[in-house]
Amino acid sequence: MTNVDDLSRMVTGAEFREAMSRIASAVHVVTTDGPAGRFGITVSAMASISDAPPTLLACLNRKSPINEAVTKNGVFCVNALSGEAAAIADTFAGRGEAETMEARFAIGDWLTLQTGAPVLADALAAFDCRVVDVAEASTHSVFFGEVVGLMIAPPNSALVYANRSYRSV
User: Domain Flavin reductase like: where (predicted)?
Assistant: First the structure.
């Protein structure tokens, strides 16, 4: 049983991040392109919302340049990464030598569907979305996207992140 005095103690950000590191999460690259430019970032905070109409959400840190770009472009694509795509995940997470967006998009083969947002050709699935709503939550914006285009690859392993490392499942 929890002591009431224990409830007054605040959970620190470091404790929360450590606990979250124990949870296996699928790895995605969220991309956008349009008047505000082409951007991409690695995320695990994505979820399906509904299939009528097909809608999902992606959480983006407000300090990240992609946040403003998605807001202005009004579109984004969630690229679900295969188990072999750890290098792409690291690149779009800002690890490695590809410092500019142009250099990041030079890695991998990219195409577009309906919105013009970049689609990774060998993604397990790509969800091409137009922004239908945005909610602000703490340090992040939650972008709700109606899926207007879809690419589905043949079954393959998926890239997940758990215990601070990638795994293929």
Answer: 20-168
